[in-house]
Amino acid sequence: MGSNSTSTAESYCNATHLTFQYSLYATTYIFIFIPGLLANSAALWVLCRFISKKNKAIIFMINLSVADLAHVLSLPLRIYYYINRHWPFQKALCLICFYLKYLNMYASICFLACISLQRCLFLLKPFKARNWKRRYDVAISAVIWVIVGTACLPFPILRSAGLANNSESCFADLGYKQMDTVDMVTMVTVAELAGFVIPVIIIACCTWKTTISLKQPPIAFQGISERKKALRMVFMCAAVFIICFTPYHINFIFYTMAKESIITSCPIVKSTLYFHPFCLCLASICCLLDPILYYFMASEFRDQLSRHSSSVTRSRLMSKESGSSMVS
Questions:
Q1: How far is the C-alpha of 323 from the C-alpha of 328, rounded, in Å?
Q2: What is the Rg, in whole angstroms, of the alpha carbon atoms belonging to the chain?
Q3: Do 244 and 286 meet the contact criterion of CB atoms below 8 Å apart?
Q4: For the chain, what is the total number of helices (H) and then of strands (E)?
């Protein structure tokens, strides 16, 4: 597999023309853009401005919202390309948008794992939760951004080969650089372990521990309602993870091997390549599911949002009444 995006296995199996992916990507991103922009902007504003209680994974939610918003803001360029199949902008802009996709995916995975882990630990260790400092979450978030930001750099680097041959191509039409077998195996192993296996183990353990805690007698500072809130939060994190990221990481191994012509079985090659666009679209849907996590699972978010909505409504009604009194 050289700089061309077509591998030997793809050509042999006649699986090189996935024309449906353009309409699939365009439709999915159009569906996500407006709701995702409004929901994540509102969530980020409310989380940052109106929530003073920061000890229930709120810092991680803020970072999760930032990751989603960064990807959502790049969607108009993706929509333009998949509709017109032409990239008139700078090459660097193409690679930045491509990079933001994977940055959003793996940052979301890390912050979902952090939300689950913190909610579970605070539930099981309420006395330690009271002494937990907000700066700890800020430091953890900064480390996550540095690690994930660095780890995602190979994605645009490996796909930048296509721009050298065709500057009008971008995203799904980008080529691949030739990879050594050892480097390829190392990259896939690290991506699967750090980006999928370890987070799914963390979320699964947190879900199990939180479920078990409901059967135990209540302890200080903690009622059954608090445990149910924590369980709903962890369950929602698990649902977002399974729906959005599990299909991609299961398919990712086979997709890489198909691109490298390690897998030559045509049924596997075709099914893997055809399934890949659907996996990427599912990963982008997290931008819509995460705001649901904030609203339905965080009572502070819900309370503050309802209070702000009520105050806005009251102020509008008062302004209308004062205006009508002046006219009369």
A1: 9
A2: 23
A3: yes
A4: 16, 0
Q: Record the tokens describing residue 311, joined without a space.
A: 């105050």
Q: What is the pLDDT of residue 66?
A: 95
- CA 153/CA 105 separation, integer angstroms: 13
227 Cβ contact partners less than 8 Å away, ≥ 6 residues apart:
123, 210, 213, 214, 218
Reported pTM: 0.84
CA 237 – CA 293 distance, rounded (Å)? 7
Give all strands (DSSP E) within the chain, no chain letters.
Answer: none
Instruction: Reduce the DSSP state of residue 62 to 3 states and report it.
Output: helix
Comparing C-alpha atoms, which of 230, 251, 241 is closest to residue 298?
Answer: 230
- How many residues are given for the chain? 328
Give the CATH number of domain 18-300. Answer: 1.20.1070.10
- Dump the DSSP string for 158-175: HHTHHHHH-TT--GGG--
If phi > 0 it is left, if psi is from -120 to 50 it is alpha, else beta; for residue 89 that is beta
- What distances in angstroms separate CA 276 from CA 56, 106, 224, 236, one per listed residue? 35, 17, 43, 25
Q: Which residue bears the tokens 């930001």?
A: 149
What is the structure's pLDDT at 323?
A: 47
Task: Please list the alpha-helical segments (H only) found in 214-245.
Answer: 224-244
What's CA 101's distance to the chain center, in Å? 8
Mean pLDDT by 10 residues, the chain (328 residues): 51 71 94 94 82 71 94 95 90 90 94 91 77 86 96 84 66 74 82 92 91 69 66 86 93 85 81 91 93 70 61 51 45
Cβ atoms of 64 and 290 within 8 Å: the answer is yes
Report the distance separating Cα 188 and Cα 249, nearest Å: 10
Res 2: pLDDT: 35
